[in-house]
Amino acid sequence: MEPRTAVPNLTDRAYATIKSQLIYLDLPPGTMFTEASLARELGISKTPVREALARVRREGLVEASARSGYRVTPVTVKDARNLFALRILLEGEAAALAAQHMEDPKHLGVLDRLQKASYNPKDVDSIKTYMRRNTEFHMTVARASGNEHLAAVLEQILDQMERLFHIGLALTNRADEIIHEHTDLVKAIVSGDEKTAREVAVTQIRNSQRMVLDALLASPRLLSTNVVAEVSPRAAVKRTRPRTARPRTTRPRTARPRTARPRARRRR
């Protein structure tokens, strides 16, 4: 008897569809919508849509409004910087640990298969396939580190960054560069070179950060929908600093010479 495969329920299917629309900008940042409108579009009842929206809301992709339904959260440069900073800390360590502990041939086989994955920036399906393979590559490195908690946290961060990563890939062709970076990382891990593995992982993430930030600030479509630029601390201080009143310069008064008035004579 063949084992039964789990059939996704309506909530799971609604979640997958809605999240895909959010990641690939079919629902651009700043878009307002309701449960009813989304249910009509998907051809299902509002209950599974509501449950699916609760999940993407927890992931920070939408926010609820009591009066107007839901709004797709804006893409912020600050969030992008913060998420990449976390990736640098986690993936640099994961790569070094993987170089130290890499023993599972299954992990080596996955990395060897995925290190040359590529994409066409003009083909949405190509980008989708590449994103899945790229996530699998980085998660394989994390699992090879032997630290399950590190891998679990990194998986959450990569999940939150899917929309950002798609924006960068759709507007930039770094396919050859990424292949070179992945190949160098696998070589360092296989050879047990912890220092090089960490350096290659960090360099790759910094390059990816530059790609995403450049794409965010160079796309008229995104800027017109909702990309919130980061305000520099200096500009913020300048904006909030109260105006100081200029001290008044008082000129010394020159005393006028008094003219003595003649006293009136008293009458006797």
Give keywords.
mainly alpha, Four Helix Bundle (Hemerythrin (Met), subunit A), disordered N terminus, Arc Repressor Mutant, subunit A, elongated
Describe this structure in words.
Helix 6 crosses helix 8 (162-171), helix 8 crosses helix 10 (194-218) and helix 9 packs antiparallel against helix 10 (194-218). The protein has 12 helices and 5 strands. With 268 residues, the protein is mostly helical. The chain starts with 9 loop residues before the first helix and ends in a 28-residue tail after the last helix. The strands form 2 sheets. It has a 3-stranded antiparallel β-sheet. A two-stranded parallel ribbon has the order 4-5. It folds into 2 domains: 10-73, Arc Repressor Mutant, subunit A (Orthogonal Bundle); 76-222, Four Helix Bundle (Hemerythrin (Met), subunit A). It has helices at 10-23, 35-42, 46-58, 77-101, 105-114, 124-144, 148-160, 162-171, 175-190, 194-218, 220-225, 233-240, and strands at 32-33, 62-65, 69-72, 75-76, 227-228.
Assign the CATH class of the largest domain: Mainly Alpha
The strand count comes to 5
Give the overall pLDDT as a whole number: 83
Quickly count the domains.
Answer: 2
Q: How much strand?
A: 5-15%
Low-confidence stretches: 1-7, 231-245
User: What shape does the CA trace take?
Assistant: elongated
* CATH topology annotation of the largest domain: Four Helix Bundle (Hemerythrin (Met), subunit A)
Please summarize what this structure is:
The protein has about 270 residues and is mainly alpha-helical.
Protein topology:
Elements (H helix, E strand, L loop, with lengths): L9 H14 L8 E2 L1 H8 L3 H13 L3 E4 L3 E4 L2 E2 H25 L3 H10 L9 H21 L3 H13 L1 H10 L3 H16 L3 H25 L1 H6 L1 E2 L4 H8 L28
Parallel strand pairs: 4-5
Antiparallel strand pairs: 1-3, 2-3
Helix pairs in contact: 1-3, 2-3, 4-6, 4-7, 4-9, 4-10, 5-6, 6-7, 6-8, 8-10, 9-10
